[in-house]
Automatic annotation (TrEMBL):
Residue stretches making up the AMP-binding enzyme C-terminal domain: 404-479
Signal peptide boundaries: none
InterPro entries: AMP-bd_C, AMP-bd_C_sf, AMP-dep_synth/lig_dom, ANL_N_sf
One Pfam assignment: AMP-binding
GO MF entries: medium-chain fatty acid-CoA ligase activity
Single Gene Ontology BP annotation: fatty acid metabolic process
Upper lineage: Bacteria, Pseudomonadati, Pseudomonadota, Alphaproteobacteria, Sphingomonadales
Name of protein: AMP-dependent synthetase
Domain AMP-dependent synthetase/ligase per the UniProt entry, residue ranges: 10-356
Length: 505
């Protein structure tokens, strides 16, 4: 594949009559989606937008949004993604700071604060609306002259994607379009004929996983049911109708399917579940397979890697499932991995834990260091032990939050769990947890869960607090939002401290 954009452009226009996507009961052909992308390109060119100008897109999981992203990438127009899951004031502030030459958004996102920000910055404002006579149209009056200090992406076109924000404020990471071949590799590696299975798309387009799916879809040529946001009824309905053999998504989705007691016959066509984004405990994998007969094929990647770098494959699963239980897989072809000491950064021998580093020539020529704690065995399998930068230091003892969360997840009443560190005057930090219970487990209490952890882990690992929440706060990519969890725990602790004393007389 010599030029990704050229190949994508050819694929988009190859079979215009072919049905490629469904959304809320409506089926879209390849030609229909291509028309939306072509209309946007024509509008941008008519406005005289420079080729290095970043096109800001307030993305939603909707077919027309997928179409315009594909069209822009195919024509090598730079893109900067913008979260739609924020206030109008926050979006307006982003537009003021970024000074885009063009902003594309769904009609419902063109609120007055956002439109006013576009006017202040001489931004070409374009609305997307499938219900309108013209699905792609200008907002307001045409811009006379684009500001000279517009946001540029140089020296080559690419896409700026927000990191997940799991551990803090999301940051934009630029991927030149030549790197997007990794998007196709991430989706097709090790799947064989299962790659052609119909797909149910749940990952948000603003994240690397969702974006990889968007740009790869025309090249992989598989039919997709697009969900604006994951929900069990819509997901199960699509699975019943499309009979996919392979599905994918973070472990949150299998947990929710099991908790909703989805009937096995509703997922009877599915043979494999590909996932990543956060750990999927082996015990939960076993429960999922026992209930539905679905084998889990796990992987590891990051926004910085433009997709997956470590994965199981169907063949590896057949040969090593029991022997390498708990591993996240092996390096993809063209990716080199190593482990370095957390303190000295010297390269470690197999079987020793430290920071993961990856060498991916398609992205850059030097090693990329992560703060993920892993070990790699002599056969090249990788075990993920949590994030080094998330370790909790309790009185000098290092505690990995993932280890405490795993202990909580063993409890039959716990559907999901998250552990964070809270400041403590005496110990420096203490672990605190937030859990989401299964629907039939409302009688479980905090003391019961604390005692459960105490039976499994050393005393210094036992959380100082365990807050039971209706659901755990998440980022747009369905990862648990650590900052929001910490805030919720501190909020509950503050409310308890402020409560009036009970008169026991």
């Amino acid at each position: 594949m010599t030029d990704f954009s050229e190949c994508l452009r050819a694929a988009i226009h190859a079979t215009p009559e072919r049905p490629v996507m469904e959304f809320k009961g409506r089926v879209f052909t390849a030609g229909e989606l291509a028309t939306y992308g072509d209309a946007l390109i024509a509008m941008i060119e008519a406005a005289g937008v420079p080729e290095d100008a970043a096109i800001g897109i307030i993305l939603r999981n909707r077919p027309i949004h997928a179409a315009v992203v594909q069209g822009l990438v195919a024509m090598r127009r730079p893109i900067t993604t913008i979260y739609s899951m924020q206030s109008a004031q926050a979006i307006a502030a982003d537009l003021d700071a970024s000074r885009f030459a063009v902003v594309v958004a769904d009609q419902e996102d063109w609120s007055e604060p956002v439109a006013a920000a576009a006017r202040r910055n001489n931004t070409v404002a374009i609305a997307l609306d499938l219900g309108a006579e013209s699905a792609v149209e200008l907002v307001g009056e045409p811009v006379g002259t684009i500001s000279a200090d517009y946001r540029r992406i140089v020296p080559e076109p690419g896409i700026e994607i927000l990191s997940s924000g799991t551990t803090g404020t999301p940051k934009r990471i630029l991927f030149p379009y030549r790197m997007l071949i990794r998007a196709v590799e991430s989706i097709t590696y090790g799947r064989g004929s299962e790659t052609l299975s119909a797909d149910i798309v749940t990952l948000p387009f603003t994240g690397i996983g969702g974006m990889c799916g968007v740009v790869a879809q025309p090249l992989v040529a598989r039919y997709s049911a697009l969900l604006e946001k994951f929900n069990v009824p819509e997901f199960v309905d699509a699975a019943r109708r499309l009979r996919p053999t392979l599905l994918s998504g973070p472990p949150t989705i299998p947990r929710m399917l099991m908790d909703a007691n989805v009937a096995p016959e509703d997922l009877s066509s599915v043979r494999y579940w590909y996932g990543g984004g956060s750990p999927f405990p082996p015990e939960l994998q076993d429960e999922f397979e026992e209930r539905y007969g679905i084998r889990t094929i796990w992987a590891y990647g990051a926004t910085e890697f433009c997709g997956t770098v470590i994965s199981w494959t169907i063949d590896l699963d057949r040969e090593y499932r029991q022997a390498k239980r708990g591993a996240v897989g092996k390096a993809l072809p063209g990716v080199e991995l190593r482990v370095v000491d957390v303190q000295t950064h010297t390269v470690l021998t197999p079987g020793k834990a430290g920071y993961l580093e990856a060498l991916i020539p398609a992205i850059r020529p030097d090693w990329i260091r992560t703060t993920d704690i892993v070990e790699i065995d002599v056969d090249g399998f990788v075990w993920h032990h949590g994030r080094g930068d998330g370790a909790i230091l309790r009185g000098g003892f290092k505690i990995l939050p993932e280890k405490v969360a795993e202990a909580l997840l063993v409890h039959p009443a716990v559907l999901d769990a998250c552990v964070v560190g809270l400041a403590d005057r005496r110990l420096g930090e203490v672990p605190a947890a937030a859990v989401m219970l299964r629907d039939n487990a409302l009688s479980v209490t905090e003391p019961m869960l604390i005692e459960h952890v105490r039976t499994l882990l050393p005393a210094n690992h036992v959380p100082a607090r365990i807050c039971i929440l209706p659901e755990l706060p998440r980022t747009t990519s369905l990862k648990i939002d650590l900052s929001a969890v910490r805030y919720r725990i501190e909020l509950e602790m503050g409310a308890e401290n402020d409560a009036p004393a009970v008169n026991s007389a």
